[in-house]
Amino acid sequence: QVQLVESGGGVVQPGGSLRLSCAASGFTFSSYGMHWVRQAPGKGLEWVAFIRYDGSNKYYADSVKGRFTISRDNSKNTLYLQMNSLRAEDTAVYYCATSIWVDAFDIWGQGTMVTVSS
Amino acid sequence: QSALTQPRSVSGSPGQSVTISCTGTSSDVGGYNYVSWYQQHPGKAPKLMIYDVSKRPSGVPDRFSGSKSGNTASLTISGLQAEDEADYYCCSYAGSYTFNWVFGGGTKLTVL
């Protein structure tokens, strides 16, 4: 079945870096744009970044622009989020998500927790 | 981009109906018919309940309905059931000059 599985979360010091991965299965990964969405503890959802199906265009929320980089490897059915210059306010569960059947986030992963703390 | 405005909490008894509002601007909710709603139970990933303002994905009960008027979208849940107790988030495309999506702050639904 259609599935997204995130990994790579953990505890990192302020100013540090982390790379998240999202493994896709059950659908033709190379045909769909992919998003990262995050949720700080006890807070709401925040869209983070989007990459087109072929990686040709990438878009970012202002809060992460210049620090985060979204990328994908269609040969490995995997989405990435490289996070640099991390701040305490980046602490959140990070979800990957996509729009397969409808024009909305209809498929979500289970999320991976990132904690930025000294 | 500012978050869309939702009430922090709503409540209702089983069998009743509740409506959750989501207020944005002409640059997001009012400018596009790309409003969606998500249900999130504690510790779980969000689940899509409504897309394109008022459409239901396959498998979502018809007790859930969506609408929009101007810059405000609404989610109505009729015939409340205990399992509907969850957080609900609205979301709108806010493309304008760049590709961008904005979520609401979330509404906690309590089934009394």
Helix fraction bin of chain B? under 10%
How much helix is in the residues of chain A? under 10%
Mean of all residue-level pLDDT scores of chain A = 96
In one word, what is the shape of chain B? globular
How much of the polypeptide of chain B forms β-strand, as a percent range?
35-45%
Largest sheet descriptor of chain A: 7 strands, mixed
N→C terminal distance of chain A: 40 Å
Radius of gyration of chain B: 13 Å
Structural class of chain A, by secondary structure, is: mainly beta
Oligomer: heterodimer
- Give the number of helices of chain A: 0
Describe this entry's structure for a reader.
The complex is a heterodimer of chains A (118) and B (112). Chain A has 118 residues and is mostly beta strands. In chain A, 0% of the residues lie in helices and 49% in strands. Chain A is built from no helices and 11 strands. In chain A, the strands form 2 sheets. In chain A, strands 2, 4, 5, 6, 9, 10 and 11 form a 7-stranded mixed beta sheet that branches. Chain A has a 4-stranded antiparallel beta sheet with strand order 1-3-8-7, with no helix packed on it. In chain A, a hairpin with a 4-residue loop joins β7 and β8 (78-83). The termini of chain A are far apart. In chain A, 37% of the residues are buried. The mean pLDDT of chain A is 96. Chain B is mostly beta strands and 112 residues long. In chain B, 0% of the residues lie in helices and 43% in strands. Chain B is built from no helices and 9 strands. Chain B has strands spanning 9-12, 18-23, 35-40, 47-50, 64-69, 72-77, 86-93, 101-103, 107-111. In chain B, strands 1, 3, 4, 7, 8 and 9 form a 6-stranded mixed beta sheet that branches. In chain B, a hairpin with a 7-residue loop joins β7 (86-93) and β8 (101-103). Chain B is globular and about 45 Å long. The mean pLDDT of chain B is 95. The interface between A and B is medium-sized, with 22 and 25 residues.
